[in-house]
Amino acid sequence: MKTIFSLLASGALLAACQSAPAPTTVHLQGQLVDMGTTEVTMRYDGAASLVGDSRDILLHTDADGRFDTTLTITEPTYYTISRNTLYLTPGDDLTLRITQDNRRAVFSGQGASVNTYMKRRLFPKGGSFLAGGSNLRDGFAQTKALVDSLAAVRRAQLDTLSGATEEFKRLEGARITADVVNSYMCYPAYASLRGENMSEEARDSFFLSLKDELTAAYQLLADDKLLDVAVVRDVMGSVVEPDSPLFEEIAGAVNISPRMKELYTAVGQAEKLRGEVDETLVADARALAGSLANRDFADELTALIDQASKLLKGQPAIDFTFTDVDGATHRLSDFRGKALYLDFWATWCGPCMQESPFFHKLAAKFEGKDVTFISLSTDTDRDAWLKLVNSKKESLPSYNTVDETIRSGWAIHYIPRFVLIDKDFRIVDAYAPRPSEPEAEEAINALLK
After folding, report:
1. Are the beta carbons of 180 and 217 closer than 8 angstroms?
2. What's this model's pTM, rounded to 2 decimal places?
3. Does residue 183 lie within any of the structural domains?
4. How confident is the model over 384-443, as pLDDT tens digits?
5. How does pLDDT run across 124-142, given as a tens digit for each residue?
6. Is the same domain home to 90 and 144?
7. 152 and 271 part of one domain
8. Element housing 354 (H / E)
């Protein structure tokens, strides 16, 4: 009998030791503040996001930005909401409050520790540790000393972080390395803003002095898994597709995998589709997508091709909503019957501000003609848009749109962007010439004939 009980006990123990199925969901709840819309995109930020955005998730909130949702994910994944980067792991149960300022984010629950750490991640487009130029010192030697010391502080924070897996620490350690590389790489550009202009020869000499450090860093970053870190993807492009003899030499010392090479090949095709679209480009992209060995890259490129195909000349214009200064809602289709020239812009966009006078001047030139000029701010901060519009007091109506369709349908991934539509509400050019270019007036005249 004792043996039977022992067997039963052993069986029970064995059953208990058999782990439950690995979690495949993440529970997210909380508040998204000042996003400008109740439909907020949580953007996938892994390697394939460099090619396309089909893995993005749309979060639906109430009027106060509150939401509660469960996501299905099978492995730890980076996402972004506005300027906030999240690291979500299956099994996380996270309550959050985030705004467009990542430093003000608040997290609690399972997964809070690593996401609180992510609040302080740096922005590659700001030069990483250079902080948009504010951390420049007198000359590169002093700037480098500051960058290296800030990186050491960040590494110490990561090393002592509780609740973080070794994989997370490996990824974030690579982010720090890549941020240092990015800081060095961005130094000449930011220094030039302070009058420290380098000749081409001086710039070459500058990078040559960093050759050994850069080579060692790139060797550490040449790991397929690390491509899930955004700044790693940013800096690896310099050696996967080198544009100077020095970086060709560095690339020769780095083990660049087939996956890395394929990623940047797919990105090159994707960037072409984001700058213009015609039947030949679409056909070339489809051929490339069919040849890719990495399914995630192929899937993203295929989704981008499908989106781009809807923007070919002659396709029906994609409808979306926008509001005027009084808050009244309009649809693009409300303007059907006239040719339309659309200007997508934002208050924070310097090139947009440069094009604005040309847009209004062109509109005045075609006043009374069978064409409507529509100015469409994409600001999520409606107050900032209204403040600018009211200060200018221009005669041309201005509208604001936060409709996700401008991104998912019209592929507005950058601004300024201009679109030309005919009176039958069909696309003439989804990547129309800028109003500062003579081709814009020529295209409108040709449409009105």
Report:
1. yes
2. 0.87
3. yes
4. 999 999 998 788 999 999 999 999 999 998 899 999 999 999 999 999 999 999 999 999
5. 989 999 999 999 999 999 9
6. no
7. no
8. helix 350-365
